[in-house]
Give the backbone structure.
Amino acid sequence: MELLRPSELAQLDGGLFIHGGTEVVPLLRDGILATETLVDVREIVPRGIDGTRIGAGTTLAELEVDPQLPEALREACRLAASPQLRNMGSVGGNLLQATRCWYWRLKFPCRLHGGDTCHAREGEHREHAIFANDFCASAHPSDVAAALVALRATMRTSQRELPVEELFRLPTEEDRDVTTLEPGELILELDVPRPEASTYLKAMDRQRWSFPLVGVAAARSAEETRLVLSGVAPIPWVLESLEDATPLPGTAYKVQIAEALIRRAREAVA
Amino acid sequence: MARLIRTEKEVEGRFEEVWLVVDEDALEQWPAGPRDIVGRPASRVTGPLRARGEARYTADLRLPGMLHAAVLRSPHAYARVKGISFERALAAPGVRAAIGPGEANMLTDEPGFQGQPVAAIAADTFGQARAAVELVDVDWEIREPLLDPEEAVRRGQLVSEPDRYERGDVDKALAEADVVVEAEYRTQTVLHSSFETHQSICEWRGDSLDIYISTQFIWGVRDEVASKLELPPDKVRVVCEFMGGGFGSKNGAGDHTYVAAELARRTGRPVRCMLTRREENLAAGNRNSTIQRLTAAARSDGTLVALAGEYVNATGWDGWPAPTDGPMKMLYDCENVRTVLSPAKINTPPMKAFRAPGFVEGTFGLECLLDELAAKLKVDPLELRKLNYAHSADDRPFSSKNLMECYKRAEPHWQRRDEVRARSEGPWKRGVGLASQIWYGGGGPPSYAWVRLGSDGRATVVTAMQDIGTGTATTMTQIAAEELGLPLERVDLVLGDSARGPYASISAGSSTTPSMGPAVRSAAADAARQIIEIAAQRYDKEERILSLQGGNVVSTDGDSWPIEEVLGLLEDAQILGKGARGPNPTGMQVLTFGVQVAEVAVDVETGEIRVERVAAIHDVGRVINPLGASSQVEGGIIQGIGHTLSEDRLLDPATGITLNQTLDAYRLPTIADVPEIVTELLDIPDEHLTNLGSKGLGEPPIVPTAAAIANAIRDATGADVRSLPISREEMLRALREAEAKRKEKHGAAATV
Amino acid sequence: MQVPELTINGQRHSVDGPVGQTLAETLRDELGLTGTKIACAEGHCGACTVLLDGVPVYSCITLVHTVGDREVTTIEGLREHPLVEAFVRTDALQCGFCTPGQIVSASALVESNPHPSSEEIRHAMAGNLCRCGTYPKIEEAISTWQG
């Protein structure tokens, strides 16, 4: 394996991108990811906060303490992972983190790995999805993604601009990916509009350093109050109705938690 | 004169009779209360080395020419190796040797759990060894695993015969009782999660084997390895200077030691075998899950008349029946008790002792049941416990028992409950619960220590024990310093090497301090006696008027000489004192006791539980180091909180594969999960126990925590939580069940 | 490029591990700086915490080739820090395996916030697990680190 450290976008030519490395390094060492060429993109991806614009290389630790940012984003960062991981992890990388589904992480030949079964549906699935879980019951672990989608953030990549919401797609038989990112495409910058009010509430197994069982991001603008959930679907879940939930036997409790957190989040931004 | 006696030895509730050579144990106990050094807080003697990163753990040792081993562990819960080929592995870079089933102790071709060792590779680096393990070609016959402990009991598939116990006539008592409660409790599988994973470095020197190992029992490893490898015990040297946690999982040699020893033999090089965290979570042991069907019966005045328990321990593929039934037999005065404990043999990783094995699980069931009984009797839970106070166990008197005093000291904490409940607000309901604790902790012989003093006036305690992080090195130093009248900083301790010191106790079963402390005191007293003899001759005084105090030899007639002046006479010669642990009091039960009072807040809409305060009052005899002791109590309670709320080893129900092998998914408590903890230790010496009157404290604090929290949750919410961990889903389920019961009751009342 | 030079505790070191080697492996196996412990090797527990330009990170999931010119501080560079004495004084260590990592994290906290509240300590230290459960004493050590 070789490591490249390009200093400009034009030098990018394939390879596996690494920034904070909090996800890439463990997955590489575990053989879930493999590459001949690692590309350290820290010199290319902008870092820092300028008004509503956030460099995708900004760390979660930097976002959590910036009083200018919407509450939902700050709180999602504050409650994410652990201090060291927030110091290492970039916001761009956070959006691309893989599920914590233990079957996927243990390399069971599940649908996300190209297989034809979701082991979690019949197996142990207390941390899994209550929405869109028919094909794959994995839960998306990013607190930050839920907040950004709720805030109607947009992003600029090396190839296009798009709403953060459109970064995510549900995996299907034909395409098992949970993002729409193309090979070689690099997230560069986010634009996070200022809501009138926003919040992020999170239910987890410990007071800190746990992935969301259920996270609820709420953002109120002049036009709408938008609710987006983490930990409940294979991708950040834009809530239409909790009635749509199709919980598995072991995840029914998540519906009850979501109900309470959704109500509280609505009250908080009202 | 050496005296040969027959005495009883107990480790973690398992008794055996042993022959023992003891010296006359002539020392009187010190009077109760703090002395110059013993009974006063001392920061740990190894603290600076550990904090500065200078302490050398087994993980930090690097021997010249050392190779690294990696183990091929069964990926299947139940399988047979039909064929195995090392051809590709041996051709891989850096590979030096490979061994397979039958070529080292514990390597098997019929694994009965995921993680059971099958083969191993030695290579120049750990990375090369791991990579080569992936190249071992195994032809597997995969078998259907049995994972359900109750099914195993039905099939009679047990690791040992069911353990049956009965006193009195339970059926008759049940028939005559005024109130009967029955409930089923469940506890989960919990992982020790020692931060230093299990590991050894083995090096052959001629026909002798040196083992550097992270262990709780240097001498046990020596004997076990010597026996398995058919070596004279003194040809095996075991070294453990610093170790990074064990909690019961490091009592034996472990597969890694046999793998390292065999690969070292084959390569002629030292070999390290270190478990990864994932291997640790599979193959290093666990606190087994249990199912407990319990019955308690009482007269309307609260007198317990019967206790009965059917216990199933999901022991795993191997292991022993942890005494889940122990608390039911011993905690209360109850004439009629019947228990049966079935240790189910299933295709899961074997249990190992884990901090008060059996009693932690059994206390959860029993002490929750007592609260359910108290509710039905409409008796205060603390009063119910006082009312049924036991004065003996199995017809043996207790060597000391001050549980009633613990209850008394618990009252101010217990009386906070009106104020705590009143702080309930919105969805957050608050409540208070308590639970009692009983456990062993008397230690026992044999254990030996030497104390050496030279002309510099410094003392060194030498004993081949291990300090697993509990702070025993510090308590031993304090005991020697106290007896020698030396300031703490003039006493050193050498431990951790079977070739350099005498036999010492296992660090398990809360036994190190009560086993080793008396031996250290007796060795220090032997040295002190010699110093006084020398001083008496040199200064022409009677021995009886001399004593050691504050670094001086002091005479009652007013003279005083610094110890270094007396010892300076020796030049290069040394004073050598030796001491041994005497026997435990015969015919008595040596046990520890306590009570914990927990305060919780429960968000009844989301199932979130916050433990806000735990008061712990324990009776463990004389306290040597109140500072270290409070750390032990806090650590036990915090592990107990993990056990109660967040820790749960999960298996795939189809394959028996462990799903949470990593510390993101297996959730130990963080600093943010810790409540206020109030520690009160009675510090009453056990007058029947040794020259110290000290019992152990490693395990007692974890015993009652889960039950105290569960009882507090019931107090706060009215919900019966009978299954650990009390996860969000379990809390919400219990709340729904309580709500349904309430409705049913109201409905029934309406029809009447 | 493939032979990085690192500044560790103020000293320059050339290291020659392959790409993919972690900073923790380099520190322990190549440079003999074994104060940094590895307990999980997957970025979950904090025993391997070091500072990069003063910021706590998990060295077990930091590739040594990505460290670049960021300055590395390990427990060996913090041995004279008052926190060491505070941890010993308050008994904020039991087996001690997680302790160097705890002190490294705490050093960054008190550098930016010399008088952290209980809540701030708990927030900043949540990535350093301790199986022995020394947390109350760790909190005490940090809140009294100046003596």
Notes: The first strand of chain B starts at residue 3 and ends at 11. Chain B touches chain C through 54 residues (CB under 8 Å). The mean pLDDT of chain B is 96. Residues 512-539 of chain B form the longest helix (28 residues).
